[in-house]
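=== Given protein ===
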Amino acid sequence: MLKVDVEGAESEVFKGFREILIRDKPTLLFEILPSYSTENRFRVERQSEILDLLHSIGYQINRLQISGEGEFKGMNQVDDFGIHGDLSQCEYFATPR
């Protein structure tokens, strides 16, 4: 398992670990902060880079559902991080398909 919480540098981390992700296929736990609006082009583009990279090497991405008290409620498969401002929707779990 690889846990990534690097305050906005996720794209660089996943690019740097690309060969390891392909070879070892670790489960990933990571945070992607929301983009809030389409006007935040920098963050939207970085999120797209992460999605494209993980999907291209065969990862399925799930958003963890966490209650306001921090309790795990489940997870839902996502194909996009989406445009939102909900900080409770920032935790992800990815597994190789």
